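Hello,

Following up on my earlier ticket. Below are the two sequence lines again, exactly as submitted.
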Amino acid sequence: MAEYFVARGLPVPPELRRTPLTDWRRWSAIGATLAVLYVGVRLLDIDLSRANPQYAGTRIISLLQWDLSILTPQNEFETFWDTAGGLMIVTIFLGVVATAISIVFALPLAFLGARNITTGNPVASAIYGVARVLFTVMRSIDVLIVVIIFAVIFGLGSAAGVFGLAFHNIGVLGKLYSEAIEGIDPGPSEAITATGATRFQVVWAAVLPQIVNPFISFSIYRLDANVRLAPVLGFVGGGGIGQYLFQTINLFQYNKAGLIIFMIVITVAAMDFASAQIRRRLL
Amino acid sequence: MPALLEIRDLVKVYSRDTRALDGISLDIRRGEFVVLIGLSGSGKSTLLRCINRLVEPTSGQVIFEGSDVTHARGPDLRRIRTRIGMIFQQFNLVKRSSVFANVLAGRLGYRSPWRTIASRPSREDVALAFENLERVSILEKAYVRADALSGGQQQRVGIARALMQRPQLMLADEPVASLDPATSHSVLRYLEEINKTDGITVICSLHFLSLARRYGTRVIALKAGRVAFDGKPAEIDERRFKEIYGEDAVEVEIGVNRTAEEQRADEARKVLDPRALSDAATDAAVVERLGPGADR
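Thanks for your patience. The regenerated structure is below:
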């Protein structure tokens, strides 16, 4: 490239004057990356000597030899809701209910956490700050940890799963919603304010119509994510099919575990597909 | 007769160095069509927004119909605002909502917040909305989404929304700056109509001097936050024009069809405006331009 400028007697742009090989910054970046990786590998002490291919092979095969008995009640004490199918449905609804709860709480909080709505005096600014910090805290605690804490409060089972998932999701949706509110066109709000409307009426008439679509979009996205998270929550005491899967793995019942994993994969894939379709049609 | 609107020593300081308004005092009488002119940044928008407190003035007083706007709080301020309509350069409609919903929103100031969500709009409000839509000749678009309308149509919806307030005063913040010359005339004719028929006082900021001359009964020019001129439109001659817009400013024409009446008005103006002599044939909307390289 530099020749182009030299041949025409033009000054060579500084970007072209440095050739890649003499660029010490590039070499130091590559060097630093390699050093970090080296230290990391040494610290991790990756040890493959304990791998047992023969054992793993038989286990993987048994994961595929599904035990279909888990799909039907096995004795007079069990009902459909104790079978893998029933628990799968319970788990889906665990995600659905958690999303619904979090929408109810995130919706009003999002307006408090939006700069362009909660503004005008020091009290409003303080409320805005509190709402934003709340979202960040709720979001930054990983959902598995939240469910562990909630399992201590509510005991093992669906209650811990639903409330733990909802708690985490309020933080996520609150942030997404409030950023959608902050991104609206301020013109209509100004116009409605000028008609003598109250702040609430301004939100109702000028803000809400503008955010309905992003709200629906974010809600479906989180519903999708929550249904995907729900099966995992059982591992830490959140109930549903995850708890069952955890049991079968601990009991080395791999032909049951394999079928459950397959059911989860199908459910998550279906959910993924459905949410993409709904969002595409809706918006 | 006391003035409809009194502005006393109005000052607005945005930050340490920007004095958007630097002591404005004005009396606006009922029925006037006041045109605000001045360069961008001269304080036109700020002045208009201080009148209904969309912008909080730093000091000074605004008195509307005898009540002090600058110190009104909560319900008092909102009651004053219901009597002052406003239209905007960017129309400020809720684009996703229907024209009808947008117009109806102009009535919110008269409705309690809980009624806004709890009940359907009253029969009178609906009737008034249709009446005002008809007034700005846009009735057939009532159920169309606002963003499906052209700029001129959107501004007419804006006027209908403001009329829902049954205002005494109409503020218009560069209502035609986003519109082409022909559409500009159509929108301004509606403002002229409500000014003459309903006696609604209009304060309208404009960038086109010829529009100011055509529609204004009084022209107020702002320069760096102060009143640089206040008088009849015809009094703005070459010298005053340069005072307002600076020595380098030139009037530039853009073509618009004119009525015979307007052309006669131009003939009469020649005596006062030396510029009209040279280009009377095509004289039309006049755009101000600030010397080479400064065009916006």
